[in-house]
Every structure is written in structure tokens, then in C-alpha cells.
Write a structure and sequence with these properties.
Blueprint lengths: L1 H22 L3 H14 L8 H5 L8 H4 L3 H10 L13 H12 L4
Helix pairs in contact: 2-6, 5-6
């Protein structure tokens, strides 16, 4: 009986760990949702009220699509147009992670 209870306990802990891993956000997704989603939208389409007012280009725009990862990182770090610079507010790793997350919408 003890072995069965122990086995069920281990199985339950394992299931919780698996579920937590499945539902966890990537660091880039968390930063994107915190700092970027208001203007760029949850899927990069920039159809939010703020995105429309600021005329944010959607991820489908050819100018956005042709940007390299390094260029996007620099634009995020230093700001562009009405977009504020995030240098000093976000770490380089956070900026790269959020750009990587945003670039997933390009595909």
C-alpha cells in the first residue's frame, strides 16, 4: 500500500511539473506582453487602438519583414519614431528575447 501511494505521489508531482512547463511563458513572451502588446498587438498585427493611433506597422509590412534580428534589437534598444527606447529599462537579454518572440509572427 505504501509503495502504491508513493508511486501515485511521484506520478502526481511529475504531472504538475509537466503541466507547469507546458503553460509557462517564454521570457520573450512575458516581456512582449508586458511592454509591446499595447502597440504591436498580441499577434504583431498592430490593430490595437494605440497601434492604430501611432500608426505602428504590422508584422506583415514589407519594411518590417525585411529587418534582420540585429536591426530589430537596435530599434528596440534605441527606439524609433514614436516608439520609446528600452535601453536601460530592459536588459539586452530581455530585448533579444522579446524580438525573438515578435519574429515568430513573421513566419
Amino acid at each position: 500500500m505504501k509503495n502504491r501511494f508513493r508511486s501515485l505521489w511521484v506520478l502526481a508531482v511529475f504531472a504538475v511539473i509537466i503541466c507547469a512547463t507546458c503553460f509557462a511563458q517564454s521570457p520573450g513572451e512575458a516581456v512582449y506582453k508586458q511592454k509591446c502588446v499595447a502597440c504591436h498587438g498580441p499577434d504583431g498585427v498592430a490593430n490595437s487602438g494605440v497601434g492604430k493611433i501611432m500608426r505602428v506597422k504590422p508584422v506583415s509590412d514589407p519594411e518590417v519583414r525585411k529587418l534582420t534580428e540585429a536591426e530589430m534589437i537596435e530599434l528596440t534598444r534605441n527606439g524609433v519614431g514614436k516608439m520609446q527606447p528600452y535601453k536601460g529599462e530592459l536588459t539586452d537579454a530581455q530585448i533579444k528575447a522579446s524580438v525573438d518572440y515578435f519574429r515568430r509572427f513573421i513566419k
